[in-house]
Write a structure and sequence with these properties.
The structure is a homodimer. By secondary structure, chain A is α+β, with helices and mostly antiparallel strands. In chain A, 43% of the residues lie in helices and 21% in strands. The interface between A and B is large, with 66 and 65 residues. Chains A, B: Homodimer.
């Protein structure tokens, strides 16, 4: 059965478009918060402040049942209005204004209050009102400019296109610019729809994006593609921020997310299916328990599976994820460079409460005791002699191969756990503390772990999301 | 203890220089053969023929106790004087001239008779007397020109230098241009001494030879190095034949032999020792039997060791070796491309009688059932989808790595013996017939093999000649 792309997209758009009632309710909450703040702050503070609505509610690009409300308090820049004043004076006042409501404090990149009003999250964020984005004092000061730009450039129909794109990204774990995802932010999704007009046109066009060679510059702020790429040479994709040409709205995107998005887009174009928007219904080995998947990896692939368990000391998500990603790379690089295992794979999990993290390291064929080292050409005498001296009697070889190179089969340091622990020690992460190294290949150990982690482990081992893509391909023939 | 290079070389030169008595005796044999031939041929044949001395005796570059005598019968080119006439008329006549002597017939690239006179091999080779090497009819017609060139360009002192070089090459298995060695021919050794003056100067200068980028053109027959290299672009080293500029005297040299020679030269310069000329005295694990070495490889490196046993159907050494080398490459390439084993090593042995050949294939960590395949970048949508379709459910994965590429862990075809046999079948060698595939890791099988092969196997597994080089390095410190 062949599906029509447009009808799939229109159907999804209907499903995820918020109802008039929902929008009304959220706006009512906002109006209530706004008037409370205006009254309360004018009584408590001697500051000029503007209460504004930002975020996807302001832009009408939020998904049904999934909106929070972003309220920005805009202050005039003044020497006595600083982070410290936000934190020590403003935030307590805001809390006191809403003493009947549940709230949380957030001091991540910026101090702000999250209020729960009628089960809706309301973020109350202080920022500065500046003339132009080139004069930002804090990162959030850019937000009102983003809101304004998107509102004035997205038609009503295109807000649906943004919603479809966001929903698509969420399905495949690609939504969000934070370090845990390194995917597409909401603002980036909006810019892409502005650039391409519709979700479908975006999908059709993105297949010609080339990694590190594509610059999307909606407002033509750069003279040439080349100039643009030179400015952002380390970013896999460049989408110039229309309100701040020095910023790449896609800078957080990883090559992995970039690749997955392109792959999905290409596949959807070739083989459209509503299942792209219902991936929870794609079942892959759903009845195989994690224990079985682990056993398969240990027995079939000769895998060692280690779980590096950390206590999270400073629960700032981007910092924790940044450190976990660095650790993961350091550990896999060290193991690879020592020739341990055929393949080393790793990924990290964090619990919901942000108290514990586990990095899983899978080392395939970990029971090898020797590894091949390719040396210099034997005719490169200086280096060849150094190689021979260095490789005196530590395994088989060296020998000269048909290619004229020296090779040796070198003994591996098989104390893998120690190598991992030393690597972590060297990285000395400030927000993580290693508590133990779990042998996940051990059935009893596996029974003690967090159920959420156990489920995540299964998905890691099974190679999500590619397994779901494979399922979509099943029984199909794509003309190569 | 530090040795002086010159004194080592002078000492060796003394040892290997033939005595006056030996030279006299060989010349006497030659004179006897020559006069017998002159008389006998003039009686039996109606052809103008010149009996000449060629080879290392003629050039006085032979080693003590190691000379055979090359006698060339030079005929005028004539339509009725062809290979067939050589074979059917001349050779029987030559044999009849020496009916009291033991002889063998050789029909390799050229029909000739080898006579055993007083335990000395005398090769009687028919060839054509031509005006210039550009007009050769048979490959051996060039020989008289080589002899003349070398005789007129080597001083008496330099003949010693050639001998030392030849002896050095023999020690390390680098002497001979035939397919079994792919090393340095005697003529090449002579040219190198002519080019560099002495053995030591050659060693000192060869360290600056660069693979595929060195052209030694003694007579400056090419306008530029570039022109020379373009002409011989597939040869690792070019030594233009002074008597035939279209020919590279080093064309048979393999990159492996080239590499080993440079390595040895560099090492001798850095650490001169008489042991370079006495490598049979360098003992490496001499008391470990082959069985033990095999056991070590099987148990420590997880090796499978196969011996592909061939009957030699047509015993022409260069053809057999050429086919063995091709087979060996085909087998290792096939196994590697299928991801079988961590490392595949192979080499071949032929018995002295030229009746049987065994190619040994060592597959390290051969018990692996899966192998890593690196696919295209996931953002290269067309190829990524093809890769996904191709790799449906045949092992672990595919997954997207941090580098944005697709990887899969693919099941290996573990019927190694069948893969090897299919590959040999595809090559269909004309001079070899596969008789069986031996499992050399099996102790009982190992006990049934030829003792010469068993000794050779030990040396193959232990990585000669690098093991001997390592021994020379032992207890030494070479400033890197």
């Amino acid at each position: 059965m062949m599906f029509d792309m447009n009808s799939i997209i229109r159907k999804i758009a209907e499903e995820i478009r918020p109802s008039e009632q929902e929008r009304r309710r959220l706006m009512d909450i906002y109006e209530h918060v706004k008037s409370t703040l205006e009254t309360c702050l004018s009584l408590s503070l001697n500051r000029d402040v503007e209460v504004t609505l930002q975020g996807s509610l302001a832009k009408d690009t939020f998904l049904r049942g999934q909106s929070d409300i972003d309220v920005f308090l805009l202050f005039q820049p003044r020497s006595d209005t600083d982070y410290r004043w936000f934190k020590e004076v403003l935030v307590p006042v805001v809390i006191s204004c809403f003493k009947d409501y549940r709230y949380t404090l957030n001091y991540a990149s910026h101090p702000y209050v999250t209020l729960y009003v009628d089960d809706v999250e309301v973020n109350i964020v202080p920022a500065f009102r500046i003339e132009s984005p080139s004069k930002i004092i804090s990162a959030v000061d850019r937000t009102p400019f983003h809101t304004k730009y998107v509102r004035s450039h997205l038609s009503i129909e295109q807000r649906d296109e943004v919603r479809v794109l966001k929903y698509f990204l969420k399905q495949w774990g690609l939504y969000g610019a934070e370090a845990s995802t390194r995917g597409f932010s909401g603002y980036l999704a909006e810019l892409l729809v502005i650039a391409y007009g519709t979700f479908l046109t975006l999908l059709k066009n993105c297949t010609s994006w080339r990694a590190y060679e594509t610059c999307i510059d909606i407002e033509n702020q750069y003279k040439s593609k080349r100039e643009c790429l030179e400015k952002f040479r380390n970013d896999v994709l460049v989408v110039v921020d229309p309100v701040d040409p020095g910023r790449n709205a896609a800078s957080a995107l990883s090559v992995k997310s970039f690749a997955l998005f392109k792959l999905l887009a290409g596949l959807f174009i070739e083989r459209p299916s509503p299942m792209f928007f219902r991936i929870n219904e794609i079942e892959i080995h759903s009845n195989v328990p994690t224990e079985e998947v682990v056993r398969m990896h240990v027995e079939e692939y000769g895998s060692c599976l280690y779980g590096l368990e950390f206590d999270i000391v400073k629960p700032i998500p981007d910092v924790v994820w940044g450190q976990l990603n660095r650790l993961r790379k350091a550990v896999t690089n060290t193991l690879r460079s020592q020739g341990i295992g055929e393949v080393v794979r790793a990924d990290s999990w964090i619990d919901r409460a942000l108290t514990k993290a586990i990095t899983v390291v899978e080392i395939i064929y970990c029971n090898k005791r020797y590894t091949l080292h390719r040396g210099p050409y034997a005719y490169d005498v200086h280096n060849a002699l150094r190689f021979l001296i260095k490789n005196k009697s530590i395994g088989m070889g060296p020998w000269i191969n048909d290619d004229g190179r020296l090779y040796t089969f070198r003994m591996i340091d098989t104390n893998i756990v120690k190598i991992i622990m030393d690597t972590i020690l060297r990285c000395s992460p400030t927000s993580l503390r290693l508590t133990k190294v779990l042998d996940l290949g051990n059935r009893e150990t596996l029974q003690t772990v967090d159920p959420g982690f156990k489920e995540w482990l299964r998905s890691f081992l099974e190679g999500d999301p590619i397994k779901k893509i494979m399922k979509l391909l099943e029984d199909s023939y794509l003309d190569p």
